[in-house]
Amino acid sequence: MNGDSLATMLARSDPMSGLFRRRGIPNLCTLGLAFAALGCTSPGERVCPDPLGDDCESTLTIQFPERLVGAYFLDLKFAGERRTALCNSPDDLETENNPVDLTCDSTSFTLHGEIVDLSNQITVSIVEDSNPIDLAGRQQIDLDTTTIAPNGPECDPICFVRTGRLRTQS
After folding, report:
1. If the chain, 170 residues long, is cut into consecutive pieces of 10 residues, what is the mean pLDDT of each piece?
2. 62, 140 in Cβ contact below 8 A?
3. DSSP alpha helix (H) spans, the chain
4. 119 and 60 in contact (C-beta within 8 Å)?
5. Labelling 45: which of 7, 23, 102, 140 has CA 20 to 30 A away?
6. 163: closest CA among 148, 142, 135, 147?
């Protein structure tokens, strides 16, 4: 060996390399090495883009049939999990203990994050803070689901936007 690169040695051993060089076309070996360095995929193999830049978050939002006045306790059961929170009372210190993945106000509540991916139904109970009456009755709500796949249906991340509405209590 006289210090030649692997590509040079392979080009010399390729009888067609002179033909390609004369026409200004790189030899097949050189093209093969270039494609191998780029990480070529097989035909039909799906390559997913890097998901770091295209993030999404799953959410589950339940709308109330009417605006709630005053503080209320929210009790949720879904996907083997339970969340409870004091809602619609921003000055109450007890709201600091609310789960970080749950937000609530006078018209709705929203769960955020991966736990939503597992939820097709949710059971909701709302009790007024000042009056222990269950405002909604314990309701099991089937959820409408929209799938979001910013990098395509077979690539991460895949997120779900789930929505539902409480019924008025009769």
Report:
1. 50 46 45 42 68 77 90 91 92 90 95 88 85 72 92 88 85
2. no
3. 6-13, 17-22, 28-38
4. yes
5. 7
6. 142
User: Do 127 and 72 form a contact (C-beta atoms < 8 A)?
Assistant: yes
Amino acid type, 54? D
pTM (predicted TM-score):
0.67
Question: What pLDDT is recorded for position 20?
Answer: 43
Q: Which of 141, 139, 142 is nearest to 170 (CA)?
A: 139
Tell me the β-bridge partners of 146. 161
51 and 102 Cβ atoms separated by less than 8 Å: no
Residue 142, both tokens: 């089937």
- Given phi > 0 = left and psi -120 to 50 = alpha, else beta, which region is 137? left
Shared-domain flag, residues 76 and 149: yes
In the numeric block, which tokens belong to residue 17? 């390399």
Containing domain of residue 130, as a range? 59-165
Contact in structure between 82 and 75 (CB atoms under 8 Å):
yes
